[in-house]
Amino acid sequence: MQTLTLRTRLEPTPAQADALQETLERFAQACNLTLEVARACHTFNKFKLQRLVYGQLRALGLSANLVIRAIARVGHRKGHRAKHYRPTSCDYDQRTLSLRGQTVSLSTTRGRLRIPMRLSPYHRYWLARTRSVQGGRLLRDRRGRWYVHLTVRIETPEAAPTGRVVGVDLGQRLLAALSTGARFPGGALKTKRLHYRAKRAEIRSKLDRPSERTRSLRRLWARLSGRERRFVRQVLHEASRRIVDSLAPGDVLAIEDLRGLRGRTKRKGKAARHLHQLWPYGLFRCRACGFQHNADVVAAMNLAQRAGSEGMGRCQPAPGAIPAGGREGKPTTSVVGS
Asked: How far apart are CA 149 and CA 122, in angstroms?
């Protein structure tokens, strides 16, 4: 099973739009009330917060499940960093959101509403293969348009591995290096990220001064965030597409298991930590035999050798594997279907 998020445009009537807006406002009010109690009681445990604020939040007119979702948002691991919640989104679970054909059924402060969705061929393709809806998030953008981000579970067929095992190592200057020798540079991505980081710091310093905190400056801040996110997403999409297109049906990709990597970093400096989701480029040279190659390619070769020689997904080194400083993670595998 695969979890997928579908961003779908809603087409509510004026009366439904008023109900949705009121729900967002009450949801934000519930989050802010919960945040005040959490700070006063020095706890962000969602179970303790539920005992403290549940009755007060129900009095706002929210359903029981929306109250639980508001408490869960504040109790999230980043909830203590929030200063104030604005009425821009509302979280839904399986009980408060469901699909009814080409409409979505949502719990609101004015009861359950069925709102038409604007479906593209892309949405219809995935919704036809959806096995269950896990929930979603209701949003309203700056132009007043309504969207729902649907979280769906899709059953994906597993292709049998019939081809070669190709290792993929992720890097910073090299976005990816394949054991076949193919390389995908990432220098432009790193430069662009640092550019946006410096630009945001400049705008942030102005926003901190009330005399320069203009509406146009706040809009520029929001636009920069969206630009960087779209740029990074496009670069990564193009790189991943090129990697998949270079493989034959039945080939297996052995990819590093990078869970917990950010927590293990020892890099110093804000810029270095900001970029530490990939590794730096380097040349590997074996002191024993003198073998020398790009470090990322060597790591990719080891990943392919581990997955192919010792079995898919296992992390024990294969006999004769080239040591690459021990920096590659455990391999996880994915089969490229036809």
From this structure: 14
